[in-house]
Structure formats: structure tokens, C-alpha cells
Amino acid sequence: MTDMTELAKRKQPINLAIVHADPDAFLDNFLPWLEITAFLSAHRSGQVEMPADGLTPALTEQQLAGGITHQIGDDTLVAFAMAAAMKGDKHAVDKVEAGLRERFGPGFPGNAGLWHFRGEIAAPVTLDDHVGQAGKKMLAGEPTPPPMRNGETWTVGMRFLERAMGSNFKSEILYPLALWTRAKWEEVCEAGVAFMAHIEENLPILREALKEPRNDAAFVANMLLLGAPAVEMDLQDEVQGMLRSLSRR
């Protein structure tokens, strides 16, 4: 059936594959997800009619070569790579890339999104540049020197949050991001105390915020909001407003 019910049915397994950074489940469900989203996008724009048999059409070679299929693929691959990066699971990303290359060739849908996690971007410009280069470092397991680690925790968390908010997989990124945020700020409050600004003021505030048991967008935003002074991050009014809004329950 080619409708929103089918969309939800196909999105659930790809959601779980992203949350768990499961490469096998991702490879099994990537094409069905592309098929339904590409078809419904074309239908909404009046380019195609609903099929008489109610079955979602397979993607043509032309569709696999570019257009909306690649836009959807980019977002999906970025979401998976982000989740894997937060787990430090380079093998998962390697396996997904190898599987997609084998099936579709080097120009597979999503290759441009994944490139941000693979390429060398000397001067990142776009949000995906920043997210991808941070993810690349996380996947490689490259430790940041302790004096810079607290600030990097804040910066990566902020960029990952921004990317999650613009993704079709917002919830699927936010849950691992909340777990990552909790682990990283616990590290800041323990091993990173010596490099925290205004320790006497900020450490109790951060420790209290970490008592929040829920792992969601509000928790992530609150840690970024409260953590900014601890890493001497001067927030612009727009960013502060966004974080305040997200942190409200």
C-alpha cells in the first residue's frame, strides 16, 4: 500500500537501525525507506498518480542517480553516522558504506551526506561540514587534549542538536545524543573540573542538572544552556532563545 500507513511501517525499522547504529538492519531497510519517501514526495508534487495495485513502485535507475532520492539518502546516512559516532562505532559506518557501494555503486543515495564524515574539510562551513568532521573524529577515537575537551563537548553537542532538529530522524538522533551528553558532562564534572571556568559556581549547577533522569531534547538543551558559562561560551541571543525554548518541559 502506498500511503502514510506504509510510510510509518517502513520508517519504524530504519528508525530502530539508526537508534541502535545497527548496520545490518539499516542495509535491509534503506531501499524500502527510499522507495516510499521518494514516491510520496513525487505524488505530493503532482508528478505521479497512485498506482492501481496500491504497491509502492521500485525506484528507477534515474531516481537512484540523484534528485529527491539522494536528498532523503543524505539525511538518512547522516543520521546513522551521527548515532554511530556517538557510540564510537566506526565498524557500523564502514559496513553500511561498503554494503551500499556494493549494491548501488560509488554514487549511492546518501554518499554526499556520508562524505562529510569521510572527507578532509580543512575549513568547515556548513552545519553538515561541522557535524561530519566532529563525527569523523569520534569514529576514529581521536582524544582531544584535556584543556580543550570541555569546550569541544559543548560545541559538538550544540551542532549535533541543531542537525537533529532539522532531520527526518529527530527523535532517533536525540535519544543517543542525550545519552552521549550525559556521559560527556559527567566526564566534565569529574575529569574536566580543572579546566572548568568558575568552578565554585558552575560545578554544583551542572551536577544538579545531571540528576534529571529523562534522556530527551529538553535535557540536552538544558545541559548546553547551563554548560555554556562553564566552558566560557558566549551565546548569541538567538541560540540562547532556542535552547531556553527546547529546555522547557
Your description of this structure?
It is built from twelve helices and no strands. 69% of the residues lie in helices and 0% in strands. Helix 2 (23-44) crosses helix 5, helix 4 runs parallel beside helix 7 (127-140) and helix 9 (170-190) packs parallel to helix 11. By secondary structure, the chain is mostly helical. The model has no long low-confidence stretch (mean pLDDT 94). The relative contact order is 0.09. The chain has helices spanning 4-19, 23-44, 61-65, 68-87, 90-104, 111-115, 127-140, 146-165, 170-190, 199-209, 217-227, 237-247.
Key features of this structure:
249 residues, mainly alpha, 12 helices
Q: What can be said about this structure in brief?
A:
It is built from twelve helices and no strands. The model has no long low-confidence stretch (mean pLDDT 94). 69% of the residues lie in helices and 0% in strands.
